[in-house]
Write a structure and sequence with these properties.
heterotrimer; A mainly alpha (about 280); B mainly alpha (about 290); C alpha+beta (about 350); A: about 280 residues; mainly alpha; MetI-like fold; C: about 350 residues; alpha+beta; Rossmann fold; OB fold (Dihydrolipoamide Acetyltransferase, E2P); 2 domains; six-stranded mixed beta sheet; five-stranded antiparallel beta sheet; 9 helices; 20 strands; elongated
């Protein structure tokens, strides 16, 4: 299998020389498959969106119902990500610092939202938090399910492992000496946590927050059951895309999807920037 | 002072470990964390099984063998049986190229592989609707040859492949990067061919990570809802997968049946988690790399 | 400040790490805790700091019983083996940390903190690096930042855990000399832990040799090298050989034969001597054996000898021989120790 690298040693080369075979085959297959499954379909979406023109694009986005749906999606995802920053960090702390009966089991449970189908999570959460549900009935007459708060509940479930699994390994890496050093310098436990440990965990917490937020914005399956889906109030943007599709309003669906994709890509960029920044500033971590 | 020195203390006060919290703070934090996990993880999981068996085992069993449910189960198995091997082959190829070679644009390629993670499942379905839909270029053309993509099994497979695209690759890339190229170079220097090297050297080293990646990929493939919902048309008995069937039953207020089908999916999730935990306890956290 | 350690015992899960250790450290002294790993030296250091609590015994800072004081209250400067710098803080933020976490009544004003930080940076010869982050510094620089950070709180006592352990050989030697100068300038009571005898002998006013949770000997470099108090100290510090002997009628016998040295106390014991403390002789009453190996060591030559009388198991010893001495492999060499010590069983 020949490849570009072998021919031109001094000039630009795609890859470093290696005796291991299979580069052309595996990279070629990967790129072809990636293009067919992901890149071409996604490019198609942008193409369709471009056909709308700026005016058409913004006319759809300027629609009150679209704006409210985007607002609901981003607002609830933000709220849920913030809840997860607090409780996800707490759970990570608990799992990496304390030993108590059932710790391993709980550690394994944290991945449940990764593995449980979203529709299953959706109907289970709805049943629990509905007015007659085990948890919902505790809070009556205050309603949780079928309000934006219900959406937040579902997104907290979905986003939890992103924060825990990003923060936990960094927490486990913290050297005990760091905390002892703070103590010998006179810091009490609260000061050590607030001024030494948390700032050190900040890049991981921010990354976890961004991941949970990005996932929450696009989440569909677990949300639509619990949201109540009242237009202008608890209707999320992905649901509005589905509704537009069912109305055969492809332009409407495309425009909403495009703006969501762009924001997702920006989030991805932000995550990468956070990680690059923390690497530069604190060394390899 | 010397006298004082000799009288050693009989009892010493409780020593506070400078790298830990007090017992009370610890207990409170653990209780708070457990309460949170109880409300958000444990109770939802428990409720699935409680609701499924609310009317006893007979109704549960009935709900699963009912023709539409059985058709949904068969379709789900079929879709996973196509999507998972495709992504398995891709995962092996991509991680081989990325982990065993240094080339330009590698980190960009990794970002592209991760892309489906950050795309809403609904949009994942939408892109295929736009590509193969009635007012696209491709859809009517294929239809004229009798090839149905949308609202048929191929569309469901495509959407499932899209959303489960990164799972195997994501598990394997960090694992194979950690292992480096030393073993492969040794095998090649001993005269093994490329395929022999892969089969006898690389594959045994990554088998557990690969297994876990395949299981995660499978769990997601069987459980995918948003993307499949957009492309399937939700035709009962024909293009209904298990999660879509759950939705239909739920919206018909047939709770026991909805939760019965859901409990199968929940059980699959539990098996996946149990295997992950087992692999990590047995082989250390490195056995299952990456995040998902 | 004077520190007194009184009958300290420390157990980890019933395993005794320190056993009845007492030590008096004079104000301004530079003390080395020297021993192999597992000897309890780091445990002792951590007990002084308050990072661990003794199972039994007391620690006095001056006249005051500090045993029940928490690590925060003890005001000790501790330099950790891997420095434990806060990596999200700049050098200046690291150094000022101990001042900033004080309660507002005891906290110096901002300008004063800044002045102190710059002064300390000058003292550790890192002026101009205050805005750097730890990962932008070399190992030796990090070490000195850790020292400056510990000094910022004006500690009663400075404690260093393997201060040069993580550095390469050249930097280690430079920093060793530098630490001695630093100590002489500031006059702080300083205790450091090391497993490197060269480091301990060169740097410390007094060396505390530890083994298996006990103090074997406390003394100056000359004391522990020239007058080792126990078989452990004799063999742990410097090179030495050891032979089982018996004293009869004032004469030292090895395997029943006189070896040309005398001793007052009768009975069996172990004879210790250093390679350089021997003289080659041509006499019947001496130690003798076949040369099994010979190697050049700087300005001298070391001969390895298997000594044994007929019918006895051989003992392996090393002796220093003059460069011009006619020593050949497998030739027989006769020698007597000129300085030695006999430890009774």
């Amino acid at each position: 299998m020949t490849n570009i690298a072998a021919a031109a040693p001094a000039r630009w080369r795609l890859k470093q020389p290696s005796i291991i075979p299979g580069f052309g085959l595996t990279l070629g297959f990967s790129l072809a498959y990636l293009s067919l499954i992901i890149l071409i379909p996604v490019a198609g979406l942008f193409w369709r969106s471009a056909e709308l023109g700026w005016a058409g694009f913004f006319a759809i986005l300027g629609d009150e119902r679209t704006l409210r749906a985007l607002y609901v999606s981003f607002g609830t995802a933000l709220a849920a990500a913030l809840v997860n920053v607090v409780f996800g960090t707490l759970v990570a702390w608990m799992l990496s610092r304390y030993s108590f009966p059932g710790r391993k089991l709980i550690d394994a449970m944290v991945d449940l939202p990764f593995a449980l189908p979203t529709a299953v999570a959706g109907i289970a959460l709805t049943t629990l938090y509905a007015p007659q549900g085990w948890i919902g009935s505790l809070f009556m007459p205050f309603r949780i399910a079928f309000t934006p708060l219900g959406i937040v509940i579902a997104l907290v479930f979905i986003g939890l492992p992103f924060v825990v699994r990003t923060v936990q390994p960094v927490m486990e890496e913290i050297d005990r000496e760091i905390e002892e050093a703070a103590a010998t310098l006179g810091a009490n436990r609260f000061q050590t946590i607030r001024r030494v440990l948390l700032p050190g965990l900040m890049p991981a917490i921010l990354t976890g927050f961004a991941l949970a937020f990005a996932r929450g914005v696009g989440e569909y399956g677990s949300v639509i059951f619990i949201a109540g889906n009242i237009p202008y109030v608890s209707e999320i943007a992905p649901l509005l895309i589905v509704i537009r599709l069912e109305e055969f309003n492809y332009a409407g669906a495309t425009a909403i999807a495009t703006i969501m994709l762009i924001i997702s890509f920006l989030m991805l960029l932000v995550i990468n920037l956070i990680q690059a920044w923390s690497r530069r500033r604190y060394g390899n971590a | 002072m010397p006298d004082q020195l000799r009288s050693s203390s009989a009892t010493s006060p409780a020593f506070r470990d400078p790298a830990s919290e007090g017992l009370l703070a610890k207990v409170l934090l653990i209780l708070l964390g457990l309460a949170f996990l109880g409300f958000f993880l444990v109770l939802p999981l428990v409720s699935v099984f409680v609701e499924a068996f609310r009317n006893g085992f007979g109704d549960y069993y009935e709900a699963l063998i009912e023709p539409d449910a059985a058709a949904a189960i068969r379709l789900t198995l079929l879709v996973a049986a196509i999507a998972v091997p495709l992504n398995l082959v891709f995962g092996l190829a991509a991680s081989w190229a990325i982990a065993k070679f240094e080339f330009k644009g590698k980190s960009f390629l990794i970002t592209l592989i991760d892309l489906p993670f950050s795309i809403s499942p609904v949009i994942s379905g939408l892109v295929y609707v736009l590509l193969f839909g009635a007012n696209s270029a491709l859809g009517p053309f294929l239809k004229s040859y009798g090839v149905e993509i949308l609202f048929a099994v191929p569309g469901i497979v495509l959407a499932t492949v899209f959303v489960t695209f990164p799972f195997v690759a994501r598990e394997l890339i960090p694992l194979m990067q950690d292992q480096g190229t030393g073993d492969e170079e040794a095998a090649l220097s001993l005269g093994a061919s490329g395929w022999q090297t892969f089969w006898y050297v690389t594959l045994p080293n990554i088998k557990w990570g690969l297994l876990y990646g395949v299981l995660l990929c499978n769990a997601r493939a069987m459980g995918e809802f948003g993307a499949v919902s957009v492309v399937s048309g939700r035709i009962r008995g024909l293009t209904n997968t298990m999660p879509l069937h759950v939705e239909i039953l739920y919206n018909e207020y047939n709770m026991v049946a909805a939760f019965a089908v859901a409990s199968l999916l929940a059980f699959l999730a539990l098996v996946t988690l149990a295997l992950k935990t087992f692999l990590e306890l047995r082989f250390g956290a490195g056995a299952t790399g990456g995040r998902h | 400040m004077e520190v007194t350690i009184s009958n300290i015992r420390k157990e980890f899960d019933r395993f005794p790490a320190l056993n009845d250790v007492s030590l008096k450290i004079a104000s301004g002294e530079l003390i080395a805790l020297l021993g192999p790993s597992g000897s309890g030296k780091t445990t002792l250091l951590r007990l002084i700091a308050g990072l661990d609590f003794p199972t039994d015994g007391k620690i006095f800072f001056g006249e005051e019983d500090a045993s029940h004081r928490s690590v925060q209250e003890r005001n000790v400067g501790f330099v950790f083996q891997h420095y434990a710098l806060f990596r999200h803080m700049t050098v200046a933020e690291n150094i000022s940390f101990g001042l900033k976490v004080r309660p507002s009544s005891a906290r110096p004003p901002k300008a004063e903190i800044r002045r102190r930080v710059l002064e300390l940076l000058d003292m550790v010869q890192l002026g101009g690096l205050e805005k750097r982050y730890p990962h932008q510094l070399s190992g030796g620089q990090r070490q000195r930042v850790a020292l400056a950070r510990a000094m910022a709180i004006e500690p009663h006592i400075l404690l260093l855990d393997e201060p040069f352990g993580a550095l390469d050989a050249k930097v280690r030697k430079e920093l060793r000399r530098w630490l001695r100068e630093f100590h002489d300038r500031t006059g702080h009571t300083t205790v450091f832990v090391t497993h490197d005898q060269e480091e301990a002998l060169e740097l410390a006013d007094r060396v505390v040799v530890m083994s298996q949770g006990r103090i074997e000997q406390v003394g100056s470099a000359d004391d522990v090298y020239d007058r080792p108090g126990s078989p452990f100290v004799f063999s742990f510090i410097g090179e030495s050989s050891q032979l089982p002997i018996e004293v009869k009628g004032g004469t030292v016998l090895f395997q029943g034969q006189p070896i040309g040295i005398s001793e007052a106390e009768e009975g069996a014991g172990e004879l210790f001597f250093r390679p350089e403390d021997v003289v080659l002789v041509d006499a019947p009453d001496a130690l003798f054996g076949k040369v099994t190996a010979c190697r050049r060591l700087a300005g001298t030559r070391i001969a390895e000898i298997d000594i044994a009388n007929d019918g006895h198991a051989p003992y392996h010893v090393e002796v220093e021989v003059p460069l011009h001495a006619p020593v050949e492999l497998r030739s027989e060499l006769r020698f007597r120790p000129t300085r030695w010590k006999i430890f009774r069983k």
